[in-house]
Amino acid sequence: MNPVLRLARQVGFGRNELRRPVDRVDGLVVGLAVLVGAAIVAAGALFGLRLATYESGVATQQQATRTATTAVLLADSGTAPTALARWKTADGTNHSGPVTVMPQQHAGASVRIWTNAAGAAVDRPIGTLDIVLMVAVALGGGMTVAFLLLRGLLFLVRLPIQRWSAHTWDQDWARTAPRWKQWR
């Protein structure tokens, strides 16, 4: 059997005299939730592509405007994440200031830093791995929140449907119970 037709029958479409109207409504709600879930996945994929394209442009711009150079520490870093250092830019200008270092670096140690066009120390340009991680975290978090919201909404929408179903079962049993008991 065609998988689409089988799914349609499972969610409440098709000829089945035993399927009550409440079952058809519940199937329709679940089917709509599946479609919304598929739309969330498609929108997430498009968002991920857009984010990756944007961040790739940022990475290209940063790589074009930032230069790697070597700085010499002027003081021990101790446990601090920064230390005072001096460095020379490509045009020969001397600069000094705080730079990011590993803990326990000693004065006179050389560290690699990145500088902008003005010679100021800046963060290293983002790379491909940074972009992949950024997109993965954004999509993972966004999809998780979206599907939790969808699941919560589905739960709230199905509450009255389940009450209706329970009420229908009670009515059906009230009609059937007297006949059932006579066969015992």
From TrEMBL:
Spans through the membrane: 28-49, 131-157
Domain of life: Bacteria
Alphabetic keyword roster: Membrane, Transmembrane, Transmembrane helix
Keyword Transmembrane: yes
PANTHER family: MEMBRANE PROTEIN RV1733C-RELATED
Protein name in the entry: Uncharacterized protein
Organism: Kutzneria buriramensis
